[in-house]
Design brief:
The structure holds two protein chains of two kinds. Chain A is mainly alpha-helical. Chain A contains ten helices and two strands, in the order H-H-H-H-H-H-H-E-E-H-H-H. Chain A folds into two domains: 67 residues; 241 residues, no CATH class. Chain B has a two-stranded antiparallel ribbon. In chain B, helix 1 packs parallel to helix 9, helix 5 runs antiparallel to helix 6 and helix 6 runs antiparallel to helix 8. The chains are: A mainly alpha, B mainly alpha. The interface between A and B is large, with 61 and 64 residues.
């Protein structure tokens, strides 16, 4: 490990330690209310930003010889394009300018295909930048609040989508990811069926007086499962075109882990119960994302492959 | 073709008289300080800063009208709905004091629409309005007042590595361009009979409708990027340590601005650590409501 990297790592660990001391020692042990987990939300948001960065950094550390980590001119430009596209799409599809009709509690968030596609096509660094910076700019132009842990969660979506480049045997790794992702999806769906009374915190409909407090609908609860079925269909229907299946499967893992990271961090940040975070927040956010990913990412991958064949780059 | 944000040089502008790095640092301090409060008495202070900055920014009404009306409308509707339903504030107050209950003179299937005006709901609406309004005003002023030629050097000067600073620079430049591309593509597809707003079809049909919009915009952007990549490669981007065309120097007033920003941030942190600045309602109103 070179000197610069170790100093970065030491800094990250030090910051993490400071947050941990503030929250756990001052808050929970000494009982100072202001620092208890549900009060110190601002600090906690940043704690999770750092945790998210550490996860990405750890993956980098173990595979740092790999070519996927190179950042040259092309990557710099792709990062910028990805982030700008993600911001623009989020703004058009999710802000009030242009509302895509949502189907019984399934909020439509097509923009998520962008970090997945950019991560898959251009590598984990481009994917991370696209998700994290794009989400940040998207939030600030549409006037929504600031949730840095969700920016990092979106960054992780793109980051994980870009990881297949790290594996020598991509096919084997992808098959493993398919079953691991599938197991996580099934687990979350089982949690849903055991807790069907939870409210859907991602569903807002001011016109009908719904502010994230309606019991979660079946459509939202099983959206992730539906998405997984679509992923399976894509994987086996496009068996010949390995890239399409690969992009969707790694995008799925990114979606489950990245959005899962953001939702689970809300257990500490907003004081949600674990089932509320999984059923009320993770499923209604990650489920529709996966449905969009399974349909839109293949379109983007196929279109980009055609461009590559044409331009020879 | 690149479309730019609406920046122009405004010699009499207060914001633009500062080094952009100093301004971004002040903005960061402002943002996090504002987020520390729910007490409207503290938030008024931040709203006053935001208004002062807006009025001295030199941005004319005709330039900012659309953006400003959109933001103000959005914030108002958002705060108004919070007031009507009382939701959103439930984490901040446990008890409500009723001022007046309005009941509709009719009922639908045994349900009578009613509006409880409580002190807490009213003040939560007000606090939320002031809070989001202050942040939104400061945010929308950035593209109007930050010189696009200085984006890169500003992010570099804030400590980001060259490549990341350049990527941030490009991101900010691409957003208005892609936004225009998006609208052009949508118009072009609509001219061909594309109906995005039409509700119908199953979930998969709905999702597939996004394709004709998302794929051309994305692929067009990627193809267009080749020219930018070539231009950057020809100028040996990333080969050695980067030099920037413009230079930024902190002057006395920039240091003062950063100092003021940091002081506000430290004070806010201290106050919120002491437990001040939580949601507040005037005791007089509580008494009025019989509490």
């Amino acid at each position: 490990m070179d000197k610069r990297m170790s100093s970065v790592l030491i800094w990250l660990v030090a910051i993490l330690a400071i947050f941990a001391i503030i929250v756990f020692v001052l808050g929970n042990t000494l009982g100072i209310e202001r620092f208890q987990t549900d009060n110190a939300t601002l600090g906690l948001r940043f704690l999770f930003v750092i945790v998210g960065l550490l996860i990405a950094f750890a993956v980098y550390l173990f595979t740092k010889e790999n070519k996927a980590w190179e950042v040259g001119t092309r990557e710099v430009v792709w990062m910028a394009i990805g982030a700008a596209l993600y911001a623009v799409f989020s703004w058009y599809f999710n802000a009030t300018v242009f509302v895509v009709p949502s189907l019984s509690q399934v909020a439509l968030r097509p923009a998520i295909a962008i970090p997945m596609f950019f991560g898959y096509a251009f590598g984990p660094i481009v994917g991370f930048f696209t998700g994290a910076v794009g989400n940040m700019f998207g939030d600030s132009i549409s006037g929504f609040g600031l949730s840095p842990q969700w920016s990092i969660g979106n960054g992780l979506v793109g980051f994980i989508a870009g990881l297949p480049a790290l594996f020598a045997s991509r096919k084997k790794a992808t098959d493993t990811v398919l079953w691991v992702g599938g197991a996580l999806v099934l687990l979350a769906t089982v949690v849903y069926f055991l807790n069907r009374g939870e409210t859907n915190m991602m569903f807002f409909d001011p016109a009908n007086n719904v502010f994230g407090d309606q019991p979660i609908a079946l459509t939202a609860g099983i959206a992730l499962l539906v998405g997984f079925v679509l992923v399976l269909v894509v994987r086996f229907a496009f068996g010949k075109n390995a890239a399409v299946g690969e992009a969707v499967i790694w995008g799925m893992l990114g979606n489950v882990l990245g959005i899962g990271f953001a939702a689970i961090s809300d257990i500490w940040i907003n004081g949600f119960s674990p089932t509320a975070a999984i059923v009320g927040e993770f499923l209604p956010a990650a489920g529709p994302n996966l449905i969009f990913a399974a349909i839109l990412v293949p379109l983007l991958v196929a279109a980009y492959a055609a461009v590559q064949r044409q331009s020879g780059r | 073709m690149l479309v730019a944000w609406r920046y122009r040089s405004r010699p009499r502008s207060f914001i633009q008289s500062f080094d952009p790095r100093a301004w971004m640092m002040f903005y960061g301090c402002f943002l996090f300080s504002t987020l520390a409060f729910w007490d409207v008495r503290f938030l008024i202070f931040f709203a006053a800063i935001a208004l002062f900055v807006l009025l001295t920014s030199g941005v004319t009404w005709s330039e900012i009208r659309r953006a400003l009306l959109f933001i103000v409308g959005f914030v108002t509707i958002f705060a108004f709905f919070t007031f009507l339903t009382g939701r959103g504030g439930v984490e901040l107050y446990a008890q409500e004091h009723l001022i007046r209950r309005f009941e509709a003179p009719f009922s639908i299937l045994g349900w009578t629409p009613a509006l409880d005006v409580t002190v807490e709901r009213a003040f939560f609406g007000v606090s939320q309005f002031v809070r989001v309004f202050s942040i939104a005003i400061m945010t929308i002023l950035i593209p109007y007042s930050l010189n696009p030629a200085l984006y890169g050097i500003t992010f570099r000067g804030l400590g980001l590595p060259d490549k990341i600073a350049y990527a941030m620079d490009l991101t900010m430049r691409f957003i208005p361009t892609f936004s225009r591309d998006f609208q052009l593509t949508m118009d072009a597809q609509k001219a061909r009979g594309f109906e995005l707003e039409k509700i119908g079809g199953g979930l998969i049909q709905q999702v597939r409708k996004i394709g004709p919009l998302m794929v051309p915009v994305t692929i067009h952007a990627i193809i267009g990027s080749e020219d930018i990549i070539d231009a950057m490669d020809l100028r040996a981007f990333g080969i050695g340590p980067r030099t920037w065309l413009q230079k930024l120097d902190y002057k006395m007033k920039d240091r003062i601005l950063i100092g003021v920003g940091l002081t506000i941030l430290l004070f806010s942190m201290a106050l919120s650590t002491l437990g001040l600045g939580n949601f507040w309602v005037p005791p007089g109103l509580l008494a009025l409501a019989g509490g």
